[in-house]
Amino acid sequence: MEVITTHLNADFDGLASMVAAKKYYPDAVLVFSGSQEKSVRDFLASPHVELEFRKVKDINLDDVTRLILVDVMKPDRIGRFSEILGRKDLEIHIFDHHPASPGDVRGRKEVIETAGATTTIFVEMLQRDKIPFSPVEATIFMLGIYEETGSLIFPSTTVRDITAAAYLLKKGANLNIVSSFITRELGPEEIDLLNDLVHSSRDYVIHDIRIKIAKASRETYIGDISFMAHHLRDMEDADVIFLLVSMEDRVQIIARSHIPEVDVSEILQAFGGGGHPQASSATVRDMSIEETENELVGALEKKIHPTRTAKDIMTSPVKTISSTSTVSTAEKTMTKYEVNVLPVIRRNAYYGLISREVVEKALHHGFGKSRVEEFCSTEASTVTSSTPVSLIESLMIELNQRFMPVVEEGRIAGAITRTDLLRSLYETLLRKDRIISHERLTEKPSIGKNLLPLLKTKFPPEVFDLLKLSGEIAGGLGFTAYLVGGSVRDLLRGEANLDIDIVIEGDGIAFAQILGEKLGARVKSHRRFGTAVVITRFLKFDVASARTEYYEAPAALPTVEMSSIKKDLYRRDFTINTMAVRLNPEKFGQLLDFFGGQRDIKEKAIRILHNLSFIEDPTRAFRAIRFSERFGFKISKHTLNLIRTAVRINLFDKLSGSRMYDELNLLFLETEPARAVRRLAELDLLKFIHPRLTITKSLEGTFTAIQETFAWFKLLFFEEDVNKSHLFFMSLIEELTPGERGEALKRLHVPPRTSRELLDGIRDSAEALAGLQRASEKEEYYILKPLDIRTILFAMAKAQSKEQKKAVSLYLTESRKVRPELTGKDLREMGYSPGPVFKKIFAAVLDARLGKKIRSREDETAFVRERFKIQDSKFKN
Asked: What is the pLDDT of residues 590-605, one digit of tens each?
């Protein structure tokens, strides 16, 4: 006998999963392992349902050969079925969305995946396998998903759940029925119970996490109290809620967590419970409600650690200065690295602090050559990396200390600034605001938001596993790994970007070598810059040590030094590219946003990080336009003003042509080029390519025509690989004189071969179009045949008449494929002697083909025999 069952006190997810499993096990019997929630009992008693369920007491357990468990893995949550788990002849299959934990039932077949509901997993299977189901069954499945995900608004909801719900709606799910059973009005007894819970609730604060425990007692058993947690959550302000309800001989515990720092399923494991990190439950026997509360508080104190310590918010490594250095050196160091305080090191140990204010006063009084140790403060408070943020907050406020050194065993390990502390406090306020206003944390800028669900849904499984492995290896080496750059930006924009960049606080090359060994990948390292490229069978990605950089002169290439993740992100171009995601296991998925990147993504703004950004690297102006056009974002007013300032002082004259060429290539490939070039003209940037370069209506028209021509070309699936950006370069310089075109390409340092090809292409396309104006179809072939595909496409974009466009189109789609079917071997077999005559024969056959005089191999044979008489001695073998 095959049996499908779910957990005790079955909910809609359990019910729906049982019904779905029946599609894969049609001979199996549906059996509840125990009671059902009241809403499930009401639904099963309604006229909507005609399902046959058996009671466990009616099943002879010895007859069970296969046990299919859905939405459950815990042996103490399947009632009497736990009695047969040890049988060797029993085959167990498991389908669940709860994370596995020690002591769970193991099966021969296991489908355990991350989703908001087990029903979601089944719906995806049914859709994949094209297994039909009725509108009534679709409604049952929808009930399972809606209940388990709180109508798709619980934090545990995934994209998979929403997609599955949309599919069910398409298959006929009735939302009126769903809402009638999901939305519940409180009855008199339930209102009375909720009132007791509210008035008995006690607040606990454990490591800055607010926990509310509410208790109530009833003499009779109450079937379903889990929904009470949602009502209490709506009324009370807490990070975590526990409901303890004593009834008959048991205490029912319902837990809900709204923060990733508290995993209630892990806490309730000690009470024999289980569930999700955000929602869990347990049933306790042989213990009073007061004893249960005491045990629960003890478990919370053991399991909950400080949400944040100095290590979580500090900057590391920190720029320091030797105690024997001069005050003048301190001033230069502060300016170069843009810091206002430097830890002072004496005999390799932390000695004190020196501030810019002190340095400037010392310089004013003529002490520039004095040693730093003579003016530094040695009484500033310090903390260790494990100091709770709450204590650091008190120290910095009470002592009015704006820079807190983090010291381990006498050595400087990091530092916390007032900005670091304010961001941490802001995150705490955001979390409180989220609970009060019921807004999701994703809608506000923050550090600490976890992107784990996005990482899992947007990246392919092998890339997700790669990121997890990276974090594990970094942690084992004592490093911290981060995912940075465009992939993080695009995750928050709702898109997948597999341009993976990993930054290591530590030795990036050592990390890359070990990661490469684990993956069986090739690793190319560049020790000068602390970077490496890892090439796997499925992905090529970059690894770098966290760096800071400074510029010796405007527009120069930067000088790079090892630094912290915060400094590494600060050296980037725009705020939207300054976010990072932690990869180490203890904080995997946590977002770091020091510079307001989330805010600017939400506001669709391109904003630089500091006022010297374009002076240090003028190519950022081209990138600003590229990102603006690519994403549909606006360049902020201040950023535009700084670009205009850089133009006014002619910074772009100092910019190397190759860097400008690279940026223009990307701009042409990633944006709508006509708009992008218009923006370049508006900001007066075209003159730095060539002084006479301007944007005209004909230039804009050609850009648009190139887009259309290239789209047409790709739509026909031609195999040739054409560099689209080269077509736009040809168009950009075409209206200049031949000499000026060469000057423009020389300014951009275009490689000599490419430069010749572009210049020749402009000239040849113009000559070809002139020839096509009055050519026959055969002549069109011979005009276009010598040209490369890039030049032909440019000619098509430049074509003014329908006849010219038609000629190029006909050549690309038909004429260029015309070939004689006869071969040299065929000619020899026909009696012709090899030699120059073969070339004449094939040319004549091609002409005849192009002139539509012959259409088949037989026609070719007859044509050759007629035109080139074999009796002629010069044709004989």
From this structure: 999 888 899 999 999 9
